[in-house]
Amino acid sequence: MAALTNFVDFSQDTLKYALVTIAFNPIFWNIVARAEYRNHFLTRIFGSPYYGCYFLAITIFSLGILRDHVYQLALADQPYYAPVHQPILGATLFAVGSVLVLSSMYALGVTGTYLGDYFGILMDAPVTGFPFNVTGSPMYWGSTLNFLGFALYKGKVAGILLSAVVFVLYWFALKWEDPFTAEIYAKRERERAKSKQGGKKQ
Questions:
Q1: d(CA 146, CA 49)
Q2: What pLDDT does residue 117 have?
């Protein structure tokens, strides 16, 4: 830790704020989405699952912008370390991450990107084209690459540490989200199968 303090200024409040915003976002959207799935509170407030999902999308997007801004402020307050300054690699990682994020949003649409499944807005079939043929979670890993790329571009060790936190949090988020989302679709298939059986009996 003593050596690490030469490259990371842990006393900076902006570093703490960055940690808070990075941790808050995935926790927030998972709690809200599960509450919506169980109680449909946003659907009731806005009178439509689509309007509720759009509201959550705007909220998550806004929180993401705030988090990214705080992250940039945090890195600006951190010491520069020349061996970590890799602008070409950093820019490349950021570009790849941006492609993964943006192409994922395009493939899924607003409701697919922003937890529409929890509102009962289910996709007809899984998206299997790019970027989902590269990774099953392009939004998360693309975002992680953006954080890491920016850290390397700026030459900030603190940015690498924060990127590691992003990676760990997204990894846990996926472990929590994927089985739940899979069960949502499995439930739909069970209901469809039951409906078909009922139709045949008639």
A1: 31
A2: 93
